[in-house]
Amino acid sequence: MPITVPEGLPAVETLERENIFVMDRGRALCQDIRPLKILILNLMPTKTATETQLLRLLSNTPLQLEVEFLRMTSHEDKHTPLSYLLKFYKSFDEVEKNRYDGMIITGAPVERMDFREVDYWPELCRVMDWSRGRVYSTLHICWGAQAGLYHHFGVPKYELPEKLSGIFEHRILRPEHPLLRGFDDRFPAPHSRYTEVHAEDLSRVPELEILAVSDEAGVYLAANRNGRQFFITGHCEYDRDTLAAEYFRDLKKEIPISMPKHYFPDGDPSKTPVMRWRGPASLLFSNWLNYFVYQRTPYDLTELGA
After folding, report:
1. Catalytic residue among 51, 111, 237, 246
2. Over the chain (306 residues), what is each successive 10-residue block's mean pLDDT?
3. What angle in degrees, to the nearest 10, is found between the helix axes of 121-134 and 143-153?
4. Which of 57, 68, 158, 176 yields a CA-CA distance of 20 to 30 A from 29?
5. Domains of the chain by range and CATH?
6. Whether 111 is catalytic
7. Does 170 qualify as catalytic in the annotation?
8. How far apart are CA 191 and CA 177, in angstroms?
């Protein structure tokens, strides 16, 4: 089924080349169906790349989605023209009175900063508080997961000795959980971060449960037991070459950086990485949409509450 996005969004061209059905809102209005309303707070500097990655995963279900993008107006984006943001993104004031079936809060390259040092932290906290009553289920990714865990539950983050980057194997702790239905016992996923959360801190919060971990990368997936909040510490949405682009970018800037682990064939950065995490990523997103958005959200969103 199609995903509905703002007309003219650059990500559409890439998705259509991959035979992903995308349509604008004009065509969607002709269909007698209530699509799931999904709000994406995109905090990544690579706006178009992140839009494409997330829309690709969201499209992999038989459900029709209507996607909107949200930006932080208290932050001046240096990588994306304001004209682009004004055309394709909404401010919080524009969506505050709306209700959504699901929401995604992305990562951001600010994990080495204290949360309160991030210029848009007060606005983000306002959005996260709002999401508890106006969104049925929210998916938090990487720094977005750390921000959500800290704001909602007081779970701290810890700086790592060096950047954690690579494709790591994860094992499932709760195979019966609907979010992990269809998963193998072990599955790969990318990580790219300078900080981490600790399992012992999450275990002290009664509302939280850890669903998947990695011996090398630590906690990967945690959930609120009520199914309304999920936290992914990695970047399962990443493309084949995203980690490579980050690695070569940091080398060019002469930032001390190790090669991403378990990523380049034979440890040779001149070789094309093998894509082996798209299956688990697609399954995770489709399970979230099916079991925690589509099947649980009230048909009439005005009935949605905290």
Report:
1. 237
2. 69 68 50 80 95 92 91 91 94 96 96 96 98 97 98 98 97 96 97 98 98 98 97 98 97 94 97 97 96 87 77
3. 70
4. 57
5. 3-303 (3.40.50.880)
6. no
7. no
8. 22
